[in-house]
């Protein structure tokens, strides 16, 4: 089984309010994207890591990872799904792909292993996810609670998300053409009626979205050593 990774990194991270795109912010003597790529590039089962970059990216070439022999860069697209599709264009149809957010630098090899191992039980694909811990509320438009949502069987969808290349490529293409709301790879599969499984992963595999998340990610990375 050939396994590749695709890292959509073409976003501008406007929610961070920084001048740099968030994947290039400093984190423990590196960049966020540098940590993310190191984890994937050093995994022995991953043959190739494809990173999708903005057409106006000024920073990637400066990273030490840019010249790694396992790394290939492509130009991403307008939305995250377009960036993933750009990466899929250079993937073998018979391979499996791990799609992983550039902004999740705290991923571990143990979680990658767990996800890869799930493919024998779940040939349709699977995603890393973390069970919801808090009580969940639904509100109306005024912010008043209308219901408590049962948290059993509710999960935070994380990445990587692991699928056969041919299947993800077809379903992402079709779902985008149909105008479906696609916020992760699993949602494109679900749109096509293919239901991926969840594999319970570490809750510290956070997506750095807001400035406070950087401090958390820094602590998590130090705790992994
Ligand atoms: O904005 P958000 O945090 O949801 O982005 C998730 C990931 O998708 C980030 O790693 C971002 O760089 C990437 N992305 C992309 N192409 C876009 C938009 C976002 O590769 N057009």
UniProtKB/TrEMBL annotation:
<dbReference type="InterPro" id="IPR018294">
    <property type="entry name" value="ISPD_synthase_CS"/>
</dbReference>
<dbReference type="InterPro" id="IPR050088">
    <property type="entry name" value="IspD/TarI_cytidylyltransf_bact"/>
</dbReference>
<feature type="site" description="Transition state stabilizer">
    <location>
        <position position="22"/>
    </location>
</feature>
<comment type="similarity">
    <text>Belongs to the IspD/TarI cytidylyltransferase family. IspD subfamily.</text>
</comment>
<dbReference type="InterPro" id="IPR034683">
    <property type="entry name" value="IspD/TarI"/>
</dbReference>
<comment type="pathway">
    <text>Isoprenoid biosynthesis; isopentenyl diphosphate biosynthesis via DXP pathway; isopentenyl diphosphate from 1-deoxy-D-xylulose 5-phosphate: step 2/6.</text>
</comment>
<comment type="function">
    <text>Catalyzes the formation of 4-diphosphocytidyl-2-C-methyl-D-erythritol from CTP and 2-C-methyl-D-erythritol 4-phosphate (MEP).</text>
</comment>
<protein>
    <recommendedName>
        <fullName>2-C-methyl-D-erythritol 4-phosphate cytidylyltransferase</fullName>
        <ecNumber>2.7.7.60</ecNumber>
    </recommendedName>
</protein>
<dbReference type="Pfam" id="PF01128">
    <property type="entry name" value="IspD"/>
</dbReference>
<feature type="site" description="Transition state stabilizer">
    <location>
        <position position="15"/>
    </location>
</feature>
<feature type="site" description="Positions MEP for the nucleophilic attack">
    <location>
        <position position="151"/>
    </location>
</feature>
<feature type="site" description="Positions MEP for the nucleophilic attack">
    <location>
        <position position="207"/>
    </location>
</feature>
<dbReference type="InterPro" id="IPR001228">
    <property type="entry name" value="IspD"/>
</dbReference>
<dbReference type="GO" id="GO:0016779">
    <property type="term" value="F:nucleotidyltransferase activity"/>
</dbReference>
<keyword id="KW-0808">Transferase</keyword>
<keyword id="KW-0548">Nucleotidyltransferase</keyword>
<keyword id="KW-0414">Isoprene biosynthesis</keyword>
<dbReference type="InterPro" id="IPR029044">
    <property type="entry name" value="Nucleotide-diphossugar_trans"/>
</dbReference>
């Amino acid at each position: 089984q050939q396994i590749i990774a695709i890292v959509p990194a073409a976003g501008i991270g406007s929610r961070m309010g920084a001048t740099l795109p968030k994947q290039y912010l400093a984190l423990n003597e590196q960049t966020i994207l540098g940590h993310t790529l190191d984890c994937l590039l050093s995994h022995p089962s991953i043959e190739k890591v494809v990173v999708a970059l903005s057409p106006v990216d000024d920073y990637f070439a400066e990273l030490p990872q840019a010249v790694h022999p396992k790394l290939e860069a492509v130009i991403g697209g307008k939305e995250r799904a377009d960036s993933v599709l750009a990466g899929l264009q250079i993937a073998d149809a018979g391979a499996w792909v791990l799609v992983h957010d550039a902004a999740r630098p705290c991923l571990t090899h143990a979680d990658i292993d767990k996800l890869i191992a799930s493919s024998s039980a779940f040939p349709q694909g699977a995603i890393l996810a973390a069970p919801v811990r808090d009580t969940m509320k639904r509100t109306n438009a005024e912010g008043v609670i209308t219901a408590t949502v049962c948290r059993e069987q509710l999960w935070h969808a994380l990445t990587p998300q692991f699928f056969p290349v041919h299947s993800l490529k077809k379903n992402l293409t079709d779902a985008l053409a149909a105008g479906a709301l696609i916020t992760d790879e699993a949602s494109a599969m679900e749109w096509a009626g293919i239901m991926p499984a969840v594999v319970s992963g570490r809750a510290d595999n956070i997506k750095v979205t807001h400035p406070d998340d950087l401090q958390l990610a820094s602590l998590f990375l130090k705790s992994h050593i």
